[in-house]
Every structure is written in structure tokens, then in C-alpha cells.
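ok trying again, last paste got cut off:
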Amino acid sequence: MKAADKLRAGSTFEDNGVPFLILKAERFQSTSGKRQRAPEITFKVKDLISGRVNETTVKASDIMNDIMLDKQSMQFLYEDDGEYNFMNQETFEQIGLQKEDLDGAVNYLKEEVVIDILFYEGRPVGVELENHMVFKVTYTEPGLKGDTTGKALKAATIETGYELMVPLFIEMDELIRIDTRTGKYVERAK
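nice, full thing came through this time. structure:
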């Protein structure tokens, strides 16, 4: 049990037996008028069972039932008709997750990559990626000579098929580091 103002984006809590993942948390306090109102927190949350996303507002002092999800490192094997299959590398047990369970993580799944699968009461409910991952650029237009500032951008496609904006000096077959939380280019990888 924690006060609502102690929970951040990425935290999980349970409400009426349903687990929720906090996607965004914003604190605000009204100071208009003669009396100050109690601080409130607006959470953008994802229902880990149904996958629905909604917003809820609670008082900062409200007590929330925070929970810990179990994690297992699993290797991505393949995608088959919208089902993404993973294997536990120790037990060789395989599970399948639907695209809805993965959210934007499908943009970063390449064969044999190992990621954390989140479980709630033995049921897989989502994934947790590393904050930064390295990918090979499979297509981009040729860059312009002399532009080293990184301010001008162009489209590039990585090996998973995901398209993002990169600086003009990035070329095909280069390795780049991407922030998986934002989907943006970070730097060249070595």
C-alpha cells in the first residue's frame, strides 16, 4: 500500500481485483479562490487484463494497492498471424501474446531478442523492453555531405520494419540506438 503521490509512470496497482499499469502521472493543485484544494494526481492507466487505457484522478493522499508483477526473461521466436511467440530459455516453455498485449513493443521485436515478459497471477499481461536498443538501418535516402549538426532529419526504416526520423548523416546498414520509450533516434551504435 502506497500513497498515490508515491506512484510514478511504470508503477502497477490493483483496484477491485484488476491490475493497472500507470502510463503517465501528473500532479496538480488548485490555488484559485480563498481556500486551497488538496493536491490531486491524474493517472493515465492501462487495464492489464482488457488492455483498455483511460484516465483517473485521485487525491494525492489516497492509499493505493501497489502490486509487483512477476518478470521472466524470454526470447522472441516468431510472429504468426498476429500472435507473437516467446520462449523461456531455461524451461523451453513457450507462450503467445497478442499485438494488443505488446503495445508499441512490436516495433522493436526482432528474432532472438530477449525481453522481460510481465505476468500477473501466472498470466502474461505485457512486456518490458530495455530503454535503449540497437538496430540496423535497412533503408534510408542518401544523406547530404557536410551536415553534422544532427538538426535536420530524414526517414529511416530499421530491420523490424519500424520507421523513424534520423539525422541526415545516417546511412543504410548502420547501427543506431533507439529509445524504446519514445521511439526516437538516440545515437550511432558501435
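cool. The longest strand covers residues 18-28. Residues 2-66 form a domain with the SH3 type barrels. fold (CATH 2.30.30.30).
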